Amino acid sequence: MIILDNNSQTPLYAQIYEQLKQEIATGILPEGSRLPSTRHLAQTLAVGRNTVEYAYLQLSSEGYVTSRVGSGFTVEKLSGFMYLTNKKDSPQVEQSSAQDKEPSNLYPYHFQYGNLSAQDFPIHMWKKISSKALASLTAEDMTAYCDKMGEMDLRHDLSVYLQESRGVFCSSEQIIICSGFDYALTLLCQLLRNKMTHIAIEEPGYIGAKNIFIDNGFTLLPVPVEKDGLNMEELERSSADIVYVTPSHQFPTGAVTSIQKRLLLLEWAKRKNGFIIEDDYDSELRYHSRPIPSISSVVGNEHVVYIGTFSKALSPSLRMSYMVLPKKLLNLYHNELNMQQTPVSILDQRIIQELMRSGYWANHLRKTCVVYKKKHDVLIRTISETMEGMVKIHGKNAGLHILLESLQGLTEKEMIERAKEHGVLVMPVSIFWSDPTNYSDNMVLLGFGNISEHDIIQGIKALSLAWKI
Fold first, then answer.
1. Which pTM does this prediction carry?
2. Which domain holds residue 44?
3. Which of 384, 387, 402, 436 sits most deeply, having the most CB atoms within 10 A of its CB?
4. How far is residue 129 from each of residues 132, 134, 164, 283, measured CA to CA in Å?
5. Known SUPFAM superfamilies for this protein (predicted)?
6. Does one domain contain both 345 and 319?
């Protein structure tokens, strides 16, 4: 039975979503059962039909239910794990591109991936917070080393943020403040490379992670990415004892790993006594549904290493990320990497801490999502209006990029060269494949973080002319 609290700060659709998710995870709503129609449930709960539809779409995007024409929404099969959705039963939070870039100024319209919009960066707020953080520093702060894992107060604030936004329940002792994703992953490799040797990676996948694994002596085992995440049969057949995934918005395809496959990944890691490296690189940027819960939010996550970053939602040049080690790796970290000092300056850490404590971070995230949602929607709408039947869109509704697949027989090289002839810069996808023979050779990547809405429209119109056959 769904009970709504009209006085709660939690939106009504989120209350419906959470209660239905709990019923599915605990078996109250078993596999194959049908959810009430949106119209019927809306009438029962005395809410708008859109409210119920939004809750159902969130459940569908996470793989709890499937929508079938004429049959409504049907509950999917889950395995023995469940989400930590009941806060009374949850542990308490402790209270204490790796691609060669052509100069974009050569082209009027550039869809490069990586950089953010300078005009949307809150520079005045940043200067204000920076001044406050600088004033907080004492002579004692400046004449001593930071905690080797990062400022304790910042790690505490991150633990609270991760619990509230990503469902990750961890203590501040599990968090390491890192200088960008590359540093975090390199540190983890140093921790694991003498214990494990084979790592499964997504195919296609982030080339920067692949290079770090290779540099640290790991054997890479590419596993195909399907529309709902890794091909689990291929993973099971592999000799991997570690798997690296981007489950909430796979890079570069945009696939979202379903709840079923998230549970299977956890079962695999537990059975292998291995680890899942969860790269949650742009989880804050979701436009038409709530952020997808992380794998680390699932009970039984003692085999998950969680990595997050401030690069996509705040500033790439800040070079700050964070890593949450499972408790079973903490002793190993303290024993083998006890001389490692955080490379992030105390001032930068204090700035982020002040951002989070003052409420500026939450406000910035809301504004950022609005800005990039507008760009995303303009991009998708213009493509749909001007290139119908010419391309297929992959990976929409999240992040700062999409893929376009040619439906007219154009190769990747032809798409890129034709685009340049019309003043448009788009990015190759082939570089993300470990085995190019598995690639269809007919896609390009479009980033939209650092291009105006006006230029998005004009650029897509130019592409429609460039790719017209």
1. 0.80
2. 12-78
3. 402
4. 5, 9, 23, 24
5. PLP-dependent transferases, Winged helix' DNA-binding domain
6. yes
